[in-house]
Amino acid sequence: MGQMMWRILRIYLPALMIVACLGSGAAADQNDQRLPPLFAELKARISLAQAKLLEAQIWSIWGNHGREDVERLMQRGIQAMGSGQLVNAIDLFQEIIRIDPDYAEAWNKLATVRYMLGEFEQSVEDVDRTLDLEPRHFGALAGLGMNFEALGNAKAAINAYRRALEVNPYLFSVRKRLKVLEDGLPEDAT
């Protein structure tokens, strides 16, 4: 695997595995009423441990569809991602999207796999769909920045990373990438 692919796995796989292991509850997704207060708290001055707990809660809600068949497909897709079976993961996430085209997390996972395969422009399209459904999706915003970096568009990457940090200021790897990119651009370019 390439260095960027390992980086994305290292950043997102722990959260993906938390979501996969949390089990089903009541139907939830990007429209869940528990999300607004979690996002508000995430913007407050809290400890890193509290921020990580809030992130895990948000990922859990995003990942919990409420339909058992969709959740089984999601778990299988996440497992396929983790084991490098990326084409199989794409098929599984596309099947979820056929079942529920308004499920933001399925679009986000599809975008992640396409990024891992180097299909950056398709990944950007899937991220855009994710953000249409869930504009606060800090994972998708970070992924958008990574896609733009891979496509050589530092200015767009900077904008995406800034948006991610507005939603979740505790994304330290995003903050680090943002600084690297900002330090590399002429002053009038940002």
UniProtKB/TrEMBL annotation:
* Alphabetical keyword list: Repeat, Signal, TPR repeat
The TPR repeats extend over: 70-103, 104-137, 138-171
**GO cellular component terms attached to this protein's record:** membrane; TRC complex
Q: Look up the record and give one Gene Ontology term from the biological process aspect.
A: post-translational protein targeting to endoplasmic reticulum membrane
GO molecular function list: molecular adaptor activity
Q: What Gene3D superfamilies does the entry give?
A: Tetratricopeptide repeat domain (1.25.40.10)
Q: Which SUPFAM superfamilies does this chain map to? A: TPR-like (SSF48452)
* Coiled coil location: none
Q: Where is the signal peptide?
A: 1-28
Q: Specify the protein name.
A: Tetratricopeptide repeat protein
Q: Which species does the entry assign this protein to?
A: Aestuariispira insulae
